[in-house]
Amino acid sequence: MAVPLVNDVAALDEVSAAEAVGQLTTVLSAADAAYHNDDAPFLSDADYDRAKRCLAEIEAAFPTLATGDSPTLRVGAAPDGRFSKIEHSQRMLSLENAFTEEEVADFVQRIRAFLNLKPQDPLPFTAEPKIDGLSLSLRYEHGVLVQAATRGDGSIGENVTANARTIADIPQKLQGSAVPDILEVRGEVYMAQEDFERLNASDAGRTFANPRNAAAGSLRQLDPTITAARPLRFFAYAWGEVSAPFATTQMAAVARLAGFGFAINPLMTLCESVDEMIGLWRRVEQMRANLGYDIDGVVYKVDDLAYQARLGLRATTPRWALAHKFPAERAWTRLEAIDIQVGRTGALSPVARLHPVTVGGVVVSNATLHNEDYIAGLDSHGREIRDGKDIRVGDWVEIYRAGDVIPKVADVDLSRRAPEAVPYMFPTTCPECGSAAAREEDDSIRRCTGGLVCPAQAIEKLRHFVSRAAFDIEGLGARVVDELYQDGWIAEPADIFTLKDRYGPGQLTQLRNREGWGDKSASALFGAIDDKRRIPLAKLLFALGIRHLGEVAGRDLARNFRDWPVLVALIDRARPAAIAYRAAEDAERAERTLAVQEARKPRPKAARDAALAMLDTPAEATAAWQELVSINGIGPVLALSVSDAFANDLERAAIERLIAHLDILPPEDTASDSAISGKTIVFTGTLERMTRAEAKARAEALGAHVAGSVSAKTDLLVAGPGAGSKATRAAALGIQVIDEDEWLKIAAQ
Asked: Does the active-site annotation cover 130?
């Protein structure tokens, strides 16, 4: 599967950025499942890191897009059902990545700023090799191992207790004194390189691609005797739930883990400065080939555990830790073909088919080519990339990957280009349905205009609808959906809920008579479909497959409106304002283009005001639009996308046919003792004793929603010195306003 990365995020406009977010999300979601559930990744760890990093950069540049179904908000993948599930008492998170020394320095500076530390204040970090293995959590009660779980999706993992007991590095009973009554030890299961080579050389029934896959596949065996026969090892480096503190620093805590009987990495070092951190990273990189086990970087952690507690956690990563990855590798190979794939949104994505080449220990045969401009040697603004070299079938191309980019063309060797090679002509019709493939102004992506008549879009929408994060209908996976679609049994989501009426008992053509089906499996599927007729509003919204409307945005909308008819009515009322907003954007874009042609500064505000003045938007529509876009996490791009979907007659009719079969459930109320749980808070002005980032993190930890602007839905405004228009608007709306002293009392809960 090709990965559509972006060369220059700064060169993106909102439309092309939104498309890139959608495509990256699709690929990374598939990679999560392949890596965590199937132990058969199609992207290397380093490739995955770069894709996730690219996505994070786009979301940072376009904050309104950060609410899509983004892997930046997820950890791992949900358990695949072969093992019983275990809910982690404390979430298992991933790590923020860095690829340059400057990023490491920025990481340290951000922490100093968050904690209000002066340059002379000490801030030591631990540094240790990042093991390329499988994360595992071990729960000990009164010193005895009672449970072992994989990371899973971070919240729920797989119960592999019986298998973990077979690993020699994992003690069944903890040693030493003063062992906490409850202690969750976390670390990495891995396989040494020489053990991996012996395993692949043996008659084990399967050849593994690398030691990480071998370790994951061995730990996740249904038969513990197979795991016992595999040479697995374990390094401990962290902990989860603990009944009583057992250290005050990271370094001391890991030393205590060693005293309890765990193997810890002997290269773990305490660093007092950025220079020492970088120096350790360089030494470990030089030692990498001789360590005997795979690593892909160095992990830095704030040593002081009190500081760690203050820094807290983001959605998927701790603020106090960073993985400094090793650099990319490159290789030359021949471009054998360029294929076009059509995605769920109709985007035509070019994929390079390469003569297989090994890059950084992984065989690469495909690479993303992004779009037609990229193939032509241009960025989305018409500026040259790769010195203007276009890409042609038959060219020798340089591929690079790992920390920099998921398989991507770095260069073209023109000296080896065949005389008969011709420039690639990007198709102007959809290869799936023959419909025109149009490219809108300022959009780098060409899209099929076939909509529901395009099989690529229809089947992708159905696959998305039944995916795990959406309706998740047991027995109706992607393969079954493909078969039923190809045979004409289902064409849209509503057809799933009429399947029993059309192909169930008593019908001439029945599901039970299809190849691979029977009475039991058909009845089970019909029952699973009926079970999903009651669906939470958030899951329904995500399942609709509307561009930019991901899991997080679905939850945001559901939490704010709670009721499907209320939400739909608001979207309909806001439609005239959405049209006006798009017209204003078009006017602003035209003004910028004209300003470039006339070599002057643009007047975007004047252009937007002029466009809005020409559109007599009803006050009710404007109010509805403002209510929609003021929701924390919902911006104009997403609001426009939702508005367009509901205004499209074909899509609206398909949605209404689906809704007729469903009982839509409101979101569950958040259970919390916090006085601000479930409330919407806005911070304004300057906070003097707590940074804005720390205040936001604390509010979210207490169950509150933090918004960027004041609206009628705001419950509380925290106003520091310098509060301006937000405080004025809050007063006009009768919203409670408190100062920093009162906020600190709430934050201390």
From this structure: yes
